[in-house]
Amino acid sequence: MNIQNWHPSIKTLLETQSMIDLKRFLQQQKQAKKVILPYSKNWFKAFELTAFYKVKIIILGQDPYHGLEQAHGLSFSVVQGVKKPPSLDNIFKELYSDLNIEPNQSSDLTHWATQGVLLLNSVLTVEAHKAASHANQGWEVFTDSIIKTLSEERQHLVFILWGAYAQKKAIFIDKDKHLILTTTHPSPLSAYRGFLGCRHFSKANDYLKMHNQQVISWS
Prior knowledge:
The protein is built from 8 helices and 6 strands.
């Protein structure tokens, strides 16, 4: 997919100085033989699977998993066959508690994305084994613009913001037009302080139903 086809504003956004600087940074990382995750073909995977006018729910992550073979361009999702990270394990625990969906399902969340769940990380790349290594290089400007555009041009979306980092993005969302669901991050360090028991999956579907939209099959 050509990322420019996702929304008319993308072309202009890619030509901004911050994105030119980001491209230069990524090229330098490659030249230095750094391993960048996910692989470049998956940097815009979330947009490839969830078209702009198909988005119903946005689940915002921070940056990709930094373990080899984990990240594939969707927030919180890992490639099928790879061991579930603890955060994803807690997401499945909450799904079971909320909607009685068995937690032994695939760790690849592509089936959510194809139904309209935009699984968006704020930063779309990371150096292998170095969490947040590509923060503040320009990705945030790009993804913040995506959030603002969705908020401005769409109606009745559900923005799911887990943890303090994601919740900072609420400033870009019109709460009068959309539902914003917030709680702690599903990480084992914080999940017990609000994430487990939040019932965000059923609340999101209830909101979609209230606005005559097809609900998400989370299973």
